Structure formats: C-alpha cells, structure tokens
Amino acid sequence: MKQLRETAQKIKSMEIRGAGRIARTAAAELRDYAERLKTKDLDEFNEKMSSAAELLISTRPTAVSLPNAVRAVMRYSGETVDEARTNVVKLADEFIANSENAVKRIGEIGARRVRDGDTIMTHCNSSAAISIMATAHAQGKNINVIATESRPRLQGHLTIGHLDRLGIKTALIVDSAVRFFMKEVDLVVVGADAVTVNGSVINKIGTAQVALAAREARKNVIIAAETYKFSPKTILGELVEIEERDSAEVIGREMLDKFSNVSVKNPAFDVTPREYVDLICTEVGAIPPEMAYIIIKDFLGWGIEEMNSGH
Ligand code: RI2
User: Fold this and answer.
1) pLDDT in tens, 187-198
2) Same domain flag for 161 and 260
3) How many angstroms separate the first and last alpha carbons of the chain?
4) Is 193 a catalytic residue?
C-alpha cells in the first residue's frame, strides 16, 4: 500500500510525468501491487485491485492514457488469486511493451513528414514528438528545433536537454515568442494528453496558441499520439476534464499574499480544435483528425457497454 501511495503521489506531483510515462507507471504499479497482495481470497484481491486502480486514475484527470492503461490491466480474469495475478502481470507487461513500441513506431511514421533542412517547433516535453525528431535526425536529416519553455513547469528544459544529447540543434524560446518565430518554422510537432472522438487534441497549455499561429502562417501541425491517448468516453458526449493546478506553480505564495484582489488561474492543458490539426501520427498510421473515431472503435477495442460501466 505504501509503494502504491508513493507512486500515486509521484504522478500527482509530476515527479513522474508525460502522458505515456504516467500510463506505463500506473500499469507497472498495478502489476507490482498485485504481486505484493498476499490474500488467497479472490473477492478481496479484486476489491483491492479496484481501489488501487481508482487511486491511480484519480491522480491526474486529463491524460486519458492513464485510465486507458489502468483499464487495459483491469481487464484481467482468473478463477483463483494466482490466476488473476498472473493475468494482471501479463496484461501490464503487454501494455508497457506495446506503449514503448508505439512511441518508436510513431517516430518512424512521423519522420516521413520531416524533410532535410526543416525547422520544427515543439511545445512542452513529449516523448512521442521527440521520437519523430530523433528518428528524422538518425536518418541523417538535418533538422533544427525551436522549443518553447512551456511555463509554468518549464518542461521545455527537459526537451532541450533530450535534443541536445541527441545532437539536434535547438533554440529555446519563451512561450510568448511563438508567433514571432513561426515564419522560420516548417512544421509543428507536439504530443497529446488526449484526443477526442471529433479529433480535437488536448495537450499542454499553450498548444492551441501554437496551432493558431501555425494555421495563420500556413504551417502544418502534426500531433504525435499513441492510440491509448484517444478518449473512448468522448463517444458518449463527455468532455475531457482540464486539470487546474496549484497557483504556486505560477507565482510564489509570498508574492501572491501581498495582493488582496488577485487570484491565479493555472489550467495545465488546452484544447486544439481539429481544424488546426493536419495529421495525428499514431503507431497504427498517420491519420487525419476526422478519423479519431476509427481509432477508438477499432484499435482501442472498447464496446459502448464497457464505456458506460466505469472509467
Ligand atoms: P508524451 C505532457 O503532460 C505534455 O502535455 C505532453 O505534450 C504530453 O504529456 C504527452 O507526452 P504533463 O505530464 O506521452 O507534462 O508524448 O502535464 O511523453
């Protein structure tokens, strides 16, 4: 229980972050938790697994990769605790392996859209988006990247570190300089925390502004998103909840306390309408946003009944 709580806390505090990574971490935690459960009683095992699943899902509300990963593991079955546990381990390991392969495959598919000499703008820190840039670079294409800081958590610093280690020339800019530099950009490549049934993309706050500036300058916007980033619940008309994070991420408490009439708003994500998205690169192919429904239906494999019952 202690380790489960610690993992949940690390995801909540963003010590472990990134939509794909929190999904893999949650799957691994459910596997390890099942292995630690000593009970021989199947009902008790199932109850404890369900509580663990709920705790992990509650840590961050927006990235749909998290409930999708948990759901993939919680499809386990078994007549005995041992059978159930073995199945949990299998499903978790499968999810993690598929997720890692998906990021690699997205790199291969997305790199086809990158030309030698391109300047790519990216926002925040997405392993799927970086996979595209890394693959293009490894293919010998000479690319330059413009990376935003991504206030308030400055995930852009992670991105420049990663690209630097790969030997990719990168310019770091403040978020408000996106439009200023858009004329130098050939392609925008960003990740996703969720993709809705109508092809809208939920990603780090500021992504919608980047896409808007790209549209104005007639530059293509490519989203790098594994199939488990697509949100089945949106088929039922549900909206993706936008996480609102602590004001202390934006301004220190001491500073804020000096004011009487000031509040801070800190949404972690925004919605980019599908009209601003040219292509979504998934591990099963590069699709126009209009095809999001097909991904949810055919590749996530969720039945409507299953969607109605739970997360
Ligand atoms: P990968 C991140 O969320 C960013 O919004 C990033 O674009 C997205 O997850 C996808 O990341 P946060 O955890 O799964 O920083 O592609 O809030 O790594």
Assistant:
1) 999 999 999 999
2) yes
3) 22
4) yes
